[in-house]
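Lab meeting notes turned into a lecture example. A postdoc, R.K., suggested we walk through two folding results consecutively so the class can see how the record format repeats. The first protein's sequence and structure tokens come next.
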Amino acid sequence: MIPSCGLLSSVEAGDFSLIREGVRALCQNFPGSYWQALDRTNGYPTDFVQALTQAGYLAALIPEQYGGSGLSLREAGVILEEISKSGGHPGACHAQMYVMGTLLRHGSGDQKKTYLPPIARGELRLQAFAVTEPDAGSDTTRITTTAVRAGNTYRINGRKIWISRVEHSDLMILLARTSKRDEAHRTQGLSVFLIDLRTASGNGLTVNPIRTMMNHHTTELLFEDLEIPASALIGEEGNGFRYILDGMNAERILIAAECIGDARFFIARATQYATDRKVFGQPIGKNQGVQFPIARSFSETEAASLMVEKAANLFDQNIPCGSEANMAKLLAADASWKAADMCIQIYGGAGFAEEYDIERKFRETRLYQVAPLSTNLILSHLAVHELGLPKSF
């Protein structure tokens, strides 16, 4: 069984102080030098992931009946926020949380009983979510990876790109076409599968690493007649688009929580540096030209945090929250990116030095202007679905 985590089980509704304290204490064992070394070598934070697993944090969203912690999405977001705020990189952790949305809500009883307990114990990792394709991008309905039924199996062919952590995961959620795209019903004909990477890699699945400006273990996937059992299908064939929306909304909310943590990291570092750094005989923080950017970032971060909280609470109540999840990601990503830019400006030349962790976190938080959904597509969604403006595509 997963080790009991008193910090998790004693949490009362709305009180996250125990979770925050627990995550902060764990992260103290993984200082900036740990992340800097991994960043240099594109290494995977195995020790950090194991520590999170043993503490119960990576099983946050898995129900207690399957050996998990049974927490809400709001509480899972707090975990990721504190990792980011500590200066850590939650990229190796967040997928196992948000991918749960698809499996937990739409997986069969047998799938849950088979996979959730070993995932909770840390014996299996579910950290990969394969949706994006080179010729489809954010237009998910245009993916061309196919899954063709043949008796008790499916045969997978196609290509995915920008799929992270595949090399460090045992299982992967895959979205593929099981019937041709119908322009009138674009979201139909897509299906979701739970892929066992331990048997798939090298047997119809080729994994090609892609080196990027941040350490996200990103890959391209090539499927060439990969054969999987029919039991790998999650839910009903053809309804996969609806299923992955749960995962996507959870993903955006959790990424937004990470961005809040990033922003608070930058604000704290900038505030401390502005207090300690003396130029012309006085702390630079005495100057309003330094104070005001920090104060503005603080205000923007606190406002974005409220949107993240709202979206998470709606998700936990099973209330539709597509727009709220998008707004949470938009506002939090903007707040973290502005805070990053502010912080590196206040540090000056020191901000570009590896030892301060500013430049690393600067690179990491820049990603969220683009992923998991670009800022422009979020604005387009809000314009059409909330403001009633004509659709542009």
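The second example is placed directly after the first for contrast:
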Amino acid sequence: MAGEPHEKTPGHDSVEMPEPTVAPLVLSVGMAMLAAGMIAGPAFLLVGVVVLLFGLGLWIRNLLPGKGHIHEALAEPAKRPQPIRPVVGKVQELRPGMPGYRVRLPEKVHPISAGIKGGLAAALVMPIPVLIYGVFSGHGIWYAGNLLSGMVLPGLEKLSVEELEAFNFGFFITGLIIHVVISVVFGMIYGVLLPTLPAIPQAMAWGAVLAPVVWGGATYVLTAMVNPTVHQGVSWPWFFLTQFIYGIAMTLVVVEATGLSPIVRGIVGGLLGGVLMPIPAVLWSLGTGTGFFYPVNLLAGFLLPVADRDLTAFHADWFAVATVLHLGVSVAFGVACALLLPKLRPIPSALAWGGILMPMLWTETSYSLMGVLNPVLQQRVDWPSFILAQFVFGVVAAVVVMRSEQIEVPPAGTGAPGGPPDKGQAGWVTG
């Protein structure tokens, strides 16, 4: 380097500083495009090489003698930092019982055994919805387990449905190992995370978490009975995501708009949630190439026959029906929540996190990853039963972990010098 930063240059009232440059950013973009070219194709590779070399050249140029530095003028003497005047004093010592003494949170944690017990208990109960689906759908009890083994065994996407429905000892052992290992790992994650997660307000736990699950589940069952065509056309993981967006937006208005009456809060919250709710559905339809109006037409299919109409095209009558239905249900649900939320019993935060939110995140992650890694298996999985199984796992694991023993975390420091042992001292353990 031509000189150290912040070094005052003789004869100038300035400081020598590194010259601003976009070279690191350009080099990073080139490296990213080069890596993406391994998947996207040779075009990305070529562009990545060009951008990387250009960024590298810019960076090398800044390292040449006499380059890469500028002289930054010093501030006026009156605006420069003044000398620090020391003040004789003493910092107050923190003692047990004083605010700020404990600097290690949370105060209590669950032992590793609690997470293992929760994971194993949930592993026993979690397959029940999937097995019930296999029996009633005609696939049998081995279908879901064989699909699960497809996470590590290659070639399962090439098997026929009949082959996936049959018992296979290798598939069974592989699926069982995957199921138990993942269950135990997630159980241990629950044991570590649940005590550390922030509390969820009562209204938010009901309105933004549980209510969308109930609404989404009821919609799934009703469409299967009333209109199987609409039922098969809906992407249910994305549908459940829209319910959560609605629930969060609606509940925030219902809880925060204290200056309005409950009915007005419900109407405003329902309208806001209804406006934001379609965003994931539209993104999904655009991403899959079905078009902007596909989810609108599916919604209209709740009341209108859809067999003889193009679901990807715009239909004015369907658009009007879908708009009225969407806003009507959104407002009605918002008003119902505004009236009922203050009267409902609180949901423990650990149960809301572990039994509802974390399974939803895991489901969305599994759906997205499978769509990239193995689209054939993604299409064969019955996602509503998969989602229900995740919720069963989350509830059971959260309940077991919540009811398990806890160990107090010793705070930092040793408390008062020379004092007797107390709960503020390191090494205090119970449970």
